[in-house]
Amino acid sequence: MNSSSSSSKEKSSVVYDAVAISRLLPHRFPFLLVDRVISLERGPDAKNHVGTKCRALKNLTLNEPYFPGHFPHRPVMPGVLQIEAMAQASCLAVVDPKGHEVDVAIAGVNDARFRRPVVPGDQLIIDVEITRDRGQLMVIKCQCSVDGELASEAELIAKVFPKQSQ
To answer: With 0-12 CB in 10 A as exposed, 13-18 as middle and 19+ as buried, what is 7?
Structure first.
């Protein structure tokens, strides 16, 4: 998931801030777990998402609503919320603000591993790469790190479907 690999892929100059993310994702506080997209690199084939990479970040403060209860004596970001942050970053890799509106849902989680605690004051860097695109199903390799150290990783299976009108 090295974002400095040399390739002929075109790097996007788009960086999503919190306002742009809130336009692309349906999540809202306290469940929006991506603060910013640092980089977005689309894959070589416009009709297929394979090779698309996204790097996002989540700044963690003691004010996060889960820290007081998980755990009061040693606040730790729950692993399930790290998976959700990976899923939200994955969604941002899949959606195209200029394309068809889609919803993305988690269909599966494989090989999840948690390597170190994620605590208040950490900046969680979320790297995702789409490794398979089967149309409605995508496989996404995800990693979270803090200060360059791997914190968690998982392979997500995502289901993509047309956005429901409200």
So the answer is: exposed
Cα separation, 86 vs 108, whole angstroms? 12
Could you tell me which residues are beta bridge partners of residue 139?
132, 157
In the chain the domains, ranked by start, together with CATH numbers, are: 18-162 (3.10.129.10)
User: What is the pTM for the complete model shown?
Assistant: 0.89
Is 70 catalytic? The answer is yes
Distance CA 155, CA 140 (A): 6
pLDDT at residue 1, as a whole number: 56
Among 165, 59, 30, which Cα is nearest to 119's?
Answer: 59
Please list, in sequence order, all residues whose beta carbon lies within 8 angstroms of the beta carbon of residue 80, skipping any fewer than 6 positions away.
none
CA atoms within 13 A on the CB side of 20: 13
Which residue out of 27, 70, 73, 100 is catalytically annotated? 70
